[in-house]
Amino acid sequence: MKVRGFIGAVFLVLQLGAIAYARFIPERFFCWGPYDEHTKFEVTVVIDGDTLSPEATEDRYKYKMRGWEQRSIHNIISLISQYERSYGINDNAQVMMRYSKNGHHEQEWRFEP
Q1: Which sign does the torsion angle of CA 64, 70, 71, 72 carry?
Q2: pTM, to two decimals
Q3: Which end of the chain is more exposed for a tag (fewer CB within 10 A), N or C?
Q4: Are both 53 and 91 inside the same structural domain?
Q5: pLDDT per position as a tens digit, 34-81
């Protein structure tokens, strides 16, 4: 019985540690309140001088590339960065995202390999 109690306590402490850690990283994947940001955004991709259509951009990343994101914008930044560092590494794509968190001033992010 003591072993089960110890395992349960360790499990709860690990969960608490993961939640505390997640509160201080930009992606915030495992927070209890992940929907505390609302971000309006739009991603533009240029490959060899040609700008991809919104549909082609969404097809490239398999995710919506404009509109509202309820989670941290760093989730989309992570998604794009991972794709461009793996599948799209030879495409030499220029990726630019404009976004506004919680209605504040617009910011710009660019993928840099």
Answers
A1: positive
A2: 0.72
A3: N
A4: yes
A5: 566 789 999 999 999 999 999 999 999 999 999 998 878 888 999 999
Residues of the domain holding 91: 35-110
66-69 and 107-110 beta bridge pairing? unpaired
**Number of domains composing the chain:** 2
Structure tokens, 90: 């030879």
The CA distance from 22 to 19, in Å, is 5
- For residue 69, the cross-strand partners are 39
Nearest alpha-carbon partner for 75 in 105, 31, 112: 31
Written as one letter, the residue type at 83 is Y
Q: How many residues does the chain have?
A: 113
Contact, 43 vs 80, CB < 8 A? Answer: yes
Residue 99: CB atoms within 10 Å? 18
Cα-flanking dihedrals φ and ψ of residue 29, to 5°? -60, -40
